[in-house]
Amino acid sequence: MEIIHYPHPTLRHNSKTIRRIDRELQSAVREMFELMYDARGIGLAANQVDLPLQMFILNVSGEPDNGEELVFVNPVVDQPKGSQVSEEGCLSIPGVHADVNRPSQVHIMAYDLAGNEIDMVVDGLLARVIQHEYDHLHGVLFVDRISDSAKKQIAQELEAFELEFNSLQLGKKIPDETAILKRLTEIESRYC
Predict the structure, then answer these.
(1) Cβ distance 38 to 94 under 8 Å?
(2) Over the range 73-89, which residues count as b (16 or more CB within 10 Å of their CB) and which as e?
């Protein structure tokens, strides 16, 4: 398992509702936390590790022995309130940062890995991370939410990611879109 980078097609895939959780998926969540910490992140969505599933993890401390590790399965985010601009980055677009305007407070309903319901109203950094990861599950990246002028400022960096991705696909180090879609469909048939 590895964190995939922009413009990998799974990042734009609309993740599917999880209907079953097995040991393999629980193990994948543990590995997601390890990858997130290694990359010095605070949140990671399943599709960022090439899994087309409605699930994300986070720990706003960014440290394995600090803060609270949270897993959100089949989340629904609603009831946005307020507005706050803050800089965001993404483990799937490393090194790229830009200001994003998001609601300062949201309500989230989801399940943890044991099937327990999560029902919280959150604000601050936790609300921002939840919204960022929730966007991932619907194929939305933070760069889709920035101003046109900010998009112009990062255009060359995104183009470099696109060139690298195309080069890896041509070199057969990343499968083509047909093979990627076939793999995603197989995972969805197992869990969704």
Answers:
(1) no
(2) bbbebeeeeeeeeeebb
Element containing residue 153 per DSSP (H, E): helix 148-170
Q: pLDDT tens digits, residue range 41-64? A: 999 999 999 999 999 999 999 999
Dist CA 112 CA 92 (whole Å)? 24
Residues with catalytic roles: 133
Q: Compute the chain's Rg from CA coordinates.
A: 16
Q: Are 58 and 70 in contact, with CB atoms under 8 Å apart?
A: yes
105 token code pair: 């407070």
Give the model's pLDDT for residue 1: 94
- For residue 53, the 8-state DSSP code is B
Instruction: Check if the beta carbon of residue 73 is closer than 8 Å to that of residue 110.
Output: yes
Query: Going by CATH, does the domain composed of 9-191 fall within 3.40.390.30?
Result: no
Residue 37 near residue 60, CB atoms below 8 Å: no
Q: Give the integer Cα–Cα distance in Å for 76 and 69.
A: 19
* Burial (Cβ within 10 Å: 0-12, 13-18, ≥19) of residue 177: exposed
